[in-house]
Amino acid sequence: MNEIPNCPKCQSEYTYEDGSLFVCPECAHEWTASAETEVESEEKIVKDANGNILSDGDTITVIKDLKVKGSSSVVKMGTKVKGIRLVEADHDIDCKIDGFGAMSLKSEFVKKV
Known about the structure:
Elements: E1 16-18, E2 21-23, E3 30-32, H1 38-41, E4 60-62, E5 66-67, E6 74-75, E7 80-81, E8 85-86, E9 93-97, E10 101-105, E11 110-112
């Protein structure tokens, strides 16, 4: 008998076969039998403006003046930011900038140092 695998996304044991796909009723994830390693490759790769891959803890530099939403201040071009944290969102970098505090930045406006 074919053993139906647990869901690769949420590890639910209540998966079922639907044609050529496996389906998880808990998280609605669908995958094929050959794509069981899909979760590892699904992780988003964040790149800076030059195409360098960013990772948690990197130091970056802002490449253009950025207006701070809800304020009249500007993060100046050349501002160095240490210890970034990558997140899954539109603004994919969380960091603390001296003089501004916690901020979220888009990776297209920074370069890796």
